[in-house]
Amino acid sequence: MQTKLFLSLILVLLCGRYVHSCGCYGPTSCSLRGKRCNIGRFKYLTAWDPCVCDCCVVCNECPALLSGCVRAFASGMELAPPLATLHFNETVEPRALVHADGKKLGLWGDACLNGTLPDGLGFEWNDTEGTFFLKGVPQERGLWEPSVVIRGGGSQIWKADLKIRVR
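-> structure tokens emitted (167 positions)
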């Protein structure tokens, strides 16, 4: 009996090391450097490392995701089909945010935009495909280089750097 209990305890400890999950602790539960803030009796207050993040990364809203609350983004998210030069006042063929190797990203939440898109373009959620699509009719000419950040499955935060040229 003691051997089974001991083996069960070892198994739980080993598995716990590889399984990661979190709950939402609140928008000021961690600092930008990942230090716990204001949880229970623990108080971490400092002007040079403000408490502006949720300790569970996927619980952060767009302003926090874009201001440094994510230390490492998942890579490989891109638009498909690839984005070529767009033409002023012409409808853009919808482009899906997908993984470079075709895997589903399990996206959810809002598409957080760091920078701007040309007037007339935007990201729209598609329930059927389970992803966001860039679509619309560009209403201004120029070059834009925004980043889009989106929460995904497995507690991942995806980021894609875009380059949009409208002539």
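The chain has two domains: 23-70, 77-166.
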